[in-house]
Amino acid sequence: LKIGPLKGRHVLVTSGPTHEPIDPVRYIANRSSGAQGAAIGAALAALGADVTFVTGPAEVPPPLGVRVVRVDTAAEMLAACEAALPADAAICAAAVADWRVEGASGQKLKKAPGALPQLQLAENPDILARLSAPGPRRPRLVIGFAAETERVAEHATAKRERKGCDWILANDVSPGTGIMGGTENAVTLITGAGAEDWPRMTKAEVARKLASRLAEALEEGADA
Ligand code: C5P
Question: Over the stretch 203-218, which tens digit does the pLDDT of each residue have?
Fold first, then answer.
């Protein structure tokens, strides 16, 4: 039995990396652990939300109390997100691979002396931008992340406009911050009203603060 300020709300969360096959045994991936996404799923569930958690192959296990949909590729992640709609809100925390291999081989590529395989890359769909596109199934609040290494608020504000989402949680992943792969995060929340710096805190605290802000916004009926 669910109780809490998000009771009765359906929230879609994407998390983890995606794996894009080269052939049946090889793939392109990235170093996302899925830690921030898992913390967000847990925080939403703790506030009573009905969470659909669409996850790529992450290191961190999915949280308890959510509906888990496991995917590998960006294309599968997009399809799973679309199948999960309608939702009151969507939070895109996945580190989706920007490219996939066009015409991935159905058979393991063979090594041949002196001959290198030529991989043709194709652009993956932008799931955050797709979920943000106007339409009857658009979640009321769509939230994305932006990992930047410089001029964080400025770049993230531009990203918010470009993607069409409502909020962006921007973080500074410069070398030396220890944020990438670490347990802490320092974020700036970008909304239609401007930029708000949050103090450095754990990823679990970021998740709880975001979940409670989301609950407030859905309560107010705000979309910015
Ligand atoms: O464009 P960039 O990758 O910096 O944007 C990051 C945000 O967009 C994150 O919220 C991420 O989950 C989302 N994203 C996505 N699909 C992609 C690329 C990024 O949903 N193909």
Answer: 999 999 999 999 999 9
Strands 26-28 and 20-23: antiparallel
**ipTM for the complex?**
0.99
Cα–Cα distance list, 128 to 48, 80, 118, 155, 217 (Å): 24, 13, 30, 16, 19
**57: nearest Cα among 71, 36, 74:** 71
What is the Cα Rg of the chain in Å? 18
Calculate how far, in angstroms, residue 159's C-alpha sits from the geometric centre of ligand 1: 10
* CB 76, CB 50: distance < 8 Å: no
- Indicate the pTM of the whole model: 0.95
Pick out the residues of the known binding site for CTP: 98, 108, 125-128, 145, 159, 163
Q: Are 145 and 156 in contact (CB under 8 A)?
A: no
Nearest ligand 1 atom, CA 124: 21
